[in-house]
Amino acid sequence: MYHYFSNNSVLVLNTSYEAINICDVRRAIVLVLGGVATPEEYTNRIYRSPSTTVKVPAVIRLNRYIKISYKLITFSRKNIFLRDNYTCHYCRDQFKPKELTIDHVLPKSKGGWNSWDNVVSACIPCNKKKGNKTPEEAQMFLLKKPKTPNLPIYLQIIRNIGNHNKEWRKYLFFDY
After folding, report:
1. CA distances, 93 to each of 4, 30, 67, 122 (Å)
2. What is the CATH number of the domain that holds 88?
3. What angle (nearest 5°) sits at the alpha carbon of residue 127, between those of residues 121 and 142?
4. Pairing of strands 9-13, 37-48
5. pLDDT at position 94, please?
6. Which residues contact 175 (CB under 8 A, 6 or more apart)?
7. By CB distance 3.0 to 4.6 Å, which of 30, 57, 63, 89 could disulfide with 120?
8. 134 contacts: CB under 8 Å, gap ≥ 6
9. What is the pTM of this model?
10. Is there a single domain that holds both residue 60 and residue 81?
């Protein structure tokens, strides 16, 4: 399974306990030691330097509130793959970004547009098999109907990673 971030990632919470970012362990330790953040959960790992030993945080909370502005999500190849969780909508397997293509559900030659509601991630073999046909004509079935993401992309990433990180789960909402 492809994961956008490694196990060396730390969930960053706002003072309101809202997940706002992911950073690496080193950055998290700098924020904690600098008094900018407070650890909320720890991993079972230890970070050692010549002068100090620190428990590695899994979740940190900022000590000052950061205002986040939520904008419309840019329509892009990267964001389509993130929306689709790097999964081919036809064979349902996960891939690395370089192994995926963008498929127009209704082909451009038949009046389809570049829009959230008309494009899906597809692996190269499935996209070649479908060709210039609709899924029905190609007798291929979509994993789900494509739609505009309703969460900022970074929150989708955080939720996806959170599924595999037990220390993060209680800080993430999975009812979207």
Report:
1. 16, 38, 37, 9
2. 1.10.30.50
3. 55
4. unpaired
5. 92
6. none
7. 89
8. 105, 106, 107, 110
9. 0.58
10. no
